Amino acid sequence: MRSRIYRNPVGVSKFTGLVLILPFIIGAVLFIIYPFVYSFTVGLTDNNGGMSFENYRNILSDSSSRQAFGVTLKYTLILVPLKLAVSLLVALLLNCELKGIGIFRTAFYIPSILGSNLAVIIMWQYLFTSDGLVNQLLSTMGIAPVGWYGDPDAALFIIVLLRLWEFGSTMVIFLAALRDMPKELYDAAKVDGCGNIRTFFSITLPQLKRIIFINLILQTIAAMQEFNAPYMITGGGPLGNTRTIGMYIYEEMFRYGDEGTANAVSWLLFVIIGLIVMLLYKFTEKLRRD
Amino acid sequence: MKKIFLFITALCCALSLSACSAKKERPVTKPDGTLDKCSLRFSWWGGDDRHEATLKAIDLWNKKHPDITITPEYGGWDGWSEKVNSQVKSGTEPDIMQINYDWLISLSPDGGGFYDLDELSSQLDLSQFDNEVLSFGKVGGKLNAVTVSVSGRSLFYNSQVFSKMGAEYPETWEDLIALGNSFGADGLYPLDLDIQSGGTAWYLAVVYVQQQTGRQFISVDGRLGFTVEDIKAALSFYRQLEESHVIRTVRTRTDEDGNAALYQSPEFIGGRVAGVLEWGSAVGKYESVLPEGVLEAGPLLTDEKGCSDGWLIKPSLLYAVSKHTKYPDEAAAFINFMLNDEECAEILGTTRGIPASKAAETALQKSGALKGLAKESDDILSSADTMTISPYMELPRMKEFYNTAIESVSYGTADADTAARQMFDSINNYLEKIRK
User: Where would I find the ABC transmembrane type-1 domain in this sequence (chain A) (predicted)?
Assistant: First the structure.
């Protein structure tokens, strides 16, 4: 049998590699590097058109921007652990071999596909109005109705709940990892007389360490950039208690037309997210290695 | 490879810096006095009544001028100014825009943000407008926009609820407070004020204090006329309205309506909230959610001991042409059609208020269409000693200051004195920063 000889269509020279990745480089320069650098320079441009750190100084001294950073951190700290816990729990339940389990797996993933579209937001709004379905359910149980939108803490809770409801993507990643786990480990645990709880903490959880870390990073970044849900459900109120930093950037840029502040805050958010990811990397390094 | 990467990064930096320091201005197309075949984009915001009438008017235009096609872009008020703001900043705005009064300051501080309509007088008949009305659209000596209608906010009530309660429409502030107490016994509210996009809460408080003091809140050239004490009086008055059950508290309103506008609220549609403070040019959306003839215009509230009527008017809407349009003559011809054409005026009716154009007003008078709430509101305001709103008063950043103060007073997170001082300082600092 004659062996085929493949020839490199672009020839072999020291620039071959560069030519091959040129489309990506052009795309990256136009749509990533240039906007990044441009945004940074706009953030450094003051009202008189000069270059200074005035925008950054104003942001740090502005109480509403500090409040927005605080709200974002609070939201992230509440949502991310809850979402990871719920996703893992549901993934464990959906990992069993039952007839028709595929239907349940699909059903639990549907909220993630819907995302924060207008229909979901309107549904959410009506669920939590003063005479909405949630308060009607509470009153049938003899619990006094809650002012979901008017109470600063309850308003943030509504948004957390919406995002928690959309746990499908995180759950699917956990489920894939669970289904890839070696069966032998569980068989050995059974032989050793381990119960379900012991098996979970001694086998399942250690095996999922890397996946938990990936989900932790992805969810932290998404939560820090939250915009849609508070913008559409609460408009940032009451008393600015649901105004996330994403909303603050939007308002500065498009409502107040302050490009310098909006870009400077974007860069601060970028740095903060970078720092949080670095810290998470550092603190979980030993755990992940063990 | 490293050198290439460094080169690209340096190039990006250089390009970004040059883009920041010298934004390239696109050349302005000069008018040639002829109408060429083209397609133009026209954007506006409003309620369904305005959308339907405007689409019909565009159909009429397209029939009369088959060579100049108008593509409509429209929506509700929420988020509209943000959309247009970003379009203008990125140079992708429609050729013809319905704009708000304060946008002249934010989008064209030196008069160069929109096309100078004085240059398009061959297509646009400006003789139909009073000089005072035209002056509303002038910035830096350039006619940036033409006023569609002059309007003010006035009070409208649900007549069914009032007759059921056996109540008369209030004429004085004391009447309003007394009404709150009587309506409150049945869990009703005679009025609603909001701190969202409408910002009617601060508006009414300003009218009240202007009547008490005779001082204008902000002058046309952007100077704060109120003292800290005046702002404190306005905030205290607002709190009194809440306490007297005239209006819902911010918290109750937010709980019941969420983020929805009042005309979409079951509380307003169901009659629990029986009044609204609204522009005569925009009251149609409230009128359309109630049975026909139920919403009625009430008298402007006055104070017998007060110095002036204190109520405010402004050009409620204006038409502007993008400075980037390639077809200025055609855009001006379309604006002329929307403002002065008799047939068009009959189709549009009072969906944008009572027309400022004499030709359009005459056409409506002839056809008997000059009626309805917009007309009633216009008549009521015409008979009062009104002040012209400063465009600075309606800037989005200013609304943030008002809403923050009112929300904190309503929630009790700040007393009226503290909130007034903070608001006074914030407004003064901001006005100083942006004043021309």
Answer: 69-280
Shared-domain flag, residues B231 and B303: yes
For the cut 80, the answer to whether the pLDDT of residue B5 exceeds it is no
CA–CA separation, A171 and A177 (whole Å): 10
Alpha-carbon distance B348 to nearest alpha carbon in chain A (angstroms): 29
pTM value is: 0.86
d(CA B179, CA B246): 7
d(CA B217, CA B342): 38
pLDDT score, position A118: 78
Same domain assignment for residues B118 and B63: yes
Contact A45 B20 (CB under 8 A): yes
Residue B154, SS3?
strand
Q: Are residues B172 and B257 in the same domain?
A: yes
Share of chain A above pLDDT 90, in %: 55
Chain A residues with CB under 8 Å of B413 CB are: 239
pLDDT band, residue B353 (cuts 50/70/90)? confident
Contacts of A257 in chain B (CB under 8 A): 85, 89, 106
What domain range includes position B335? 38-151+315-380
Regarding an ipTM greater than 0.90, the answer is: no
Could you tell me the fold of the domain covering A63-289? MetI-like fold (1.10.3720)
The HSE-up count of residue A188 (CA atoms within 13 Å, CB side) is 6
State whether B205 and B345 are in the same domain: no
Hey, of A19, A20, A32, A34, which one would you mutate to test binding to chain B, going by the most B CBs within 10 A of its CB? A34
Q: Are residues B285 and B431 in the same domain?
A: yes
Res B405: pLDDT: 95
pLDDT in tens, B262-286: 888 899 999 999 999 998 878 888 9
